[in-house]
Recover the amino acids of this structure.
């Protein structure tokens, strides 16, 4: 029964989702990306690049999903930490999201040959979070 519910929600288009569902799902994806990023860091530091790359690709895909989870009617409520400026500068916001996604793919080809794993992860993964949060997410 539970899996049936999940299937139904999973196949709903964004247009059919309630404001609450959209805000909750974008929060859940950001939280997931945070834990995935920490795993990418740990795996890369241990030299487990194959698994790290799989997770990089997953994060890249999550950013693309997030592009569709900021419709006009989801600017407030349900504890959203998104700032109104997102919708005033939707193109800049979207290009930052797209760039964050693209950088995760670049990372898959750079990480193994990197002389400084931490610096490479900072440049291509962690800096994206800060660049966006400092402008588009409420202080938390
Ligand atoms: C292009 C913009 C953008 C990028 C890139 C981005 N975030 Fe965020 N993040 C947001 C916004 C906007 C919110 C607020 C979402 C809401 O509450 O509606 C958020 C919320 C979060 C949250 C809170 C989720 C919750 O449950 O309320 C976490 C954790 C988070 N981000 C982690 C990260 C990490 C880690 C990265 C980088 C690996 C990252 N984000 C990259 C824009 C971004």
């Amino acid at each position: 029964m539970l899996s049936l519910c999940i299937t139904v929600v999973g196949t709903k288009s964004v247009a059919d989702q309630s404001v609450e569902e959209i805000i909750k799902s974008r929060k859940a994806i950001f939280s997931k990306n945070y834990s995935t990023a920490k795993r990418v860091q740990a795996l890369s530091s241990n030299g487990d690049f194959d698994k790290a790359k799989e997770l990089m690709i997953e994060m890249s895909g999550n950013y693309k999903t997030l592009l569709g989870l900021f419709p006009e009617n989801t600017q407030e409520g349900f504890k959203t930490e998104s700032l109104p400026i997102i919708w005033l500068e939707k193109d800049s916001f979207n290009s930052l999201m797209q760039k964050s996604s693209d950088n995760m793919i670049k990372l898959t080809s750079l990480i193994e040959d990197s002389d400084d794993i931490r610096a490479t992860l900072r440049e291509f993964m962690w800096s994206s979070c800060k660049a966006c949060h400092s402008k588009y997410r409420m202080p938390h």
In short: The mean pLDDT is 93. The two ends are 37 Å apart (CA to CA).
